[in-house]
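Tutorial handout. Part one gives the primary structure; part two gives the three-dimensional structure as tokens.
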Amino acid sequence: MPETKILLPESEIPTHWYNVVADMPNPPAPVLGPDGKPIGPEALAAIFPMNIIEQEVSSERWIPIPDEVREIYRLWRPSPLFRAHRLEQMLGTPAKIYYKYEGVSPAGSHKVNTAVPQAFYNREAGIKRLTTETGAGQWGSSIALAGQMFGLEVRVYMVKVSYEQKPFRRSMMHTWGAEVLPSPSPLTEAGRQILAAHPDSPGSLGIAISEAVEEAATRSDTNYSLGSVLNHVLLHQTVIGLEAKKQFELVGDYPDMVFAPCGGGSNFGGVAFPFLADKASGKAVRLVAVEPTSCPTLTRGHYAYDFGDSAGLTPLMKMYTLGHDFVPPGIHAGGLRYHGDSTLVSQLYHEGLVEAQAVAQLATFEAGLTFARAEGIIPAPESNHGIAACIEEALRCKESGESKTLFFNLSGHGHFDMAAYDRYFAHELEDYDYPSEAIEEALHHLPKVG
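Part two.
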């Protein structure tokens, strides 16, 4: 019988992260200050340790992974690559479907891959506390765990709608010693301003980032930690794609298409960037970022300079954006409710090297159920987006008779998201297409640079 689980020994955990900047046809667009002029690394020193800043601006192809980080990675890495035989049979497709399962991590998602090195570098720099934001809670859980491992206090500003929807994610963070606050909160100037204007605000990742950055910038013992978007975060996540390439070699296969959910970009970048290196050398592989129709950053947003947060505390980054004051609807894929996208993912999409598509909420839950009933794993709502796009392609192969190799990143399990599934079963979820007029209105609120 063909293999179902393709496993690597612990000795095959990557020793280096892969930096896609080294293989991009054009250098990344510069980061700008409030005056519209490029800023240097020193501008980030108020909220990040120097090792993180060096990784953020590096153009080196390979960045060494510290031994202490690799030792912790051994708790769940290498993660398994699965051949989805039962899903293939259920769909009746000639396509071969593989998925990398990041739900085996202690926090149940891929986010720990960057939480651990970020906590390590902050401890090495003498930092005692971290502030951060989280949407659905995967990142908050991950940095809470990493903070516990390295003796750091962690305060998490959790998007209010997710704070209310995901109580057990909060419990996980509390178990690992983190403090969790609903955002917007009255503890920061950014939060107070939002609450004064919109007392019932459901919150957004942009607002929560503003609160976490504000606090970190005003305390010398505290740094800020981010779970997506920035270059160093996507760098750390490349352990996913690097392992997957070795696993495909073991079975003598290679993907024609790679799918992953995309909110800020860490999931997609982590699995796709190592394959982009092959694409740069002539390999034919399609890399597809999948986002919600309710938050269609890549597929319908503006490619422009914008703030990474709602209050305008961060530097200006060139990215696809729906506007930094975007407040998304309360869909259950909380990790994908971000107004912008990674500058690296945005530039690669703008230059036609990666693809993007948007999927409606109901279709993602339908795909998640199909996958769970075939393969047994209940996926997180975010992961369902990549699954939906992969299943759609597999069904196209069924119609055409093509035998493509399809690969998606199953970024986490849905064990703490069952309330979302319950709402789906009760027919309480609905599709939502973000209005065109709101996207156009965002143009008027983008920072004026140049």
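Part three, for discussion. The domain at 5-10+66-108+238-445 is CATH 3.40.50.1100 (Rossmann fold). The mean pLDDT is 93.
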